[in-house]
Amino acid sequence: MLQIAILAATANSMKIAILTCEKCPDLAPRDLHLLPLLAQRNVQADVVIWSAPLVDWQAYDGLLFRSVWDYHLRAGAFNNWLSRIEQLQIKTLNPVAIIRQNQHKFYLRYLQSKGVEIIPTVFIDRTDRLDLSVINALNWQQAVIKPAVSASSYLTTLFAGKDWQKLQTEYGPVAMQRDLLLQPYMPEIIETGELSLVFFNRTYSHAVIKRAPQGDFRVQAEFGGRHEMYKPQASVIETAENIISLIEGPMLYARVDGLLKDGRFLLMELEMLEPDLYFDAHSEASARYIDAAIAMLG
After folding, report:
1. Which phi and psi (to 5°) does residue 297 adopt?
2. What is the pLDDT of residues 13-25, one digit of tens each?
3. Does residue 67 sit in helix, strand or coil?
4. CA nearest neighbour of 66 among 40, 36, 46
5. Does domain 122-184 have CATH number 3.30.1490?
6. Per-residue DSSP letters for 212-226?
7. Residue 293 neighbours by CB under 8 Å, 6+ apart
8. In whole angstroms, what is the distance from residue 134 CA to residue 161 CA?
9. How confident is the model at residue 9 (pLDDT cuts 50, 70, 90)?
10. pLDDT for residue 222
C-alpha cells in the first residue's frame, strides 16, 4: 500500500520553475522559504535563470515569475524569451500577456483613461528632442523623471523644477532610447508613506506601508527603505480591487502601490511582474500565494 501511495503521489506531482536572474541565481533570500512550502504540497520547484541557455522549458508544468530583476536592462532579449514561452504554450504566472503590459509603465495611461486616479504624470514618447519645459506651466517645484521600463528606481532622478533645462540635457540621450515618465514629487511619500496592497488571485491578502530613509525619497529596501504591516480602510481596498479589475486574464499576484492625498488613494504603480510581495508582513501570506499558484496551474 505504501508503494502504491508513493507512486500515486509521484504521478500527481507538479514540477515548476521559479524564475530569477543572473545576479540572483539562487533566488532572493526573502523568497527561499517558498521552496519548502511547495515541497510540502508535493510540488518540485527548480530555481531557474530566465535567460539561461539550453533550458528545457517544456519539462515544467508552469513558470512563476519572481526575481527577474534585469528585464529592464535586457528588454529585447526578455521580450524575445516571452515570445518563445508563449509559442511553447507553457503556463506562466502571471501570464505572458500581463507581463508584457506591466513591464512598460505607460499602462498607467490606460488605467487613467478608465477612470483610475493616478499621480499627475506626463507621458513622454521616445524622442530625439526632449522638452521638459512643461514643468514651467505645471509649476512643479520638484519633479521626478524615470524610464517607462525600469525597476528599483533605475535612472530615476528627483530634481528641482527650476533645473528642468539641466535635466533635459542629461536625459536627452536616454529619451532617444526609452519612453519616459515625468511626475511631480509627492511629499506624502515622506510625510505619510507609500502604501502597497497585495492581492492573490484577485483577492486582497495584506498591505504594508513603506517609508524612505532620512534624506531620500526612495522606499525600496536596497536604498534603506523600511516597511511595516498596515491595515487600510475598506474604501482603499475597494479602490485597489477596482484597479486590478481593469486587467484581463488570470492573475496570481498584483501589488497596488499608491498614496493617500486628501483622503483619496492615488495610484503610483500596479506591480504584476516581479514585485516584493512582503510575505513577512503576514503569517499566512506565503501559504495563500502558494495555494493560489497550485490551483491556477493545476
Report:
1. -90, -20
2. 899 999 999 999 9
3. strand
4. 46
5. yes
6. PPTT----SGGGT-E
7. 16, 62, 64, 93, 252
8. 10
9. very low
10. 59
Amino acid at 172: G
Q: Which residue has the cell 501570506?
A: 285
Per residue in 178-235, pLDDT (tens digit) is 999 999 999 988 888 899 999 999 999 999 998 866 655 555 655 555 678 899 999 9
CATH of domain 107-117+188-292: 3.30.470.20
- CATH class for the domain made up of 2-93: alpha beta
Q: Please give the Cα distance from 262 to 239 (Å, whole number).
A: 15
Residue 164 CB neighbours (<10 A): 20
CA 90, CA 61: separation in Å to the nearest integer?
A: 7
Q: Using alpha carbons only, how large is the chain's radius of gyration in Å?
A: 20
- Letter for the amino acid at 53? P
Query: Which segments of the chain belong to CATH 3.30.1490?
Result: 122-184
Calpha distance 86→91 (Å, rounded): 8
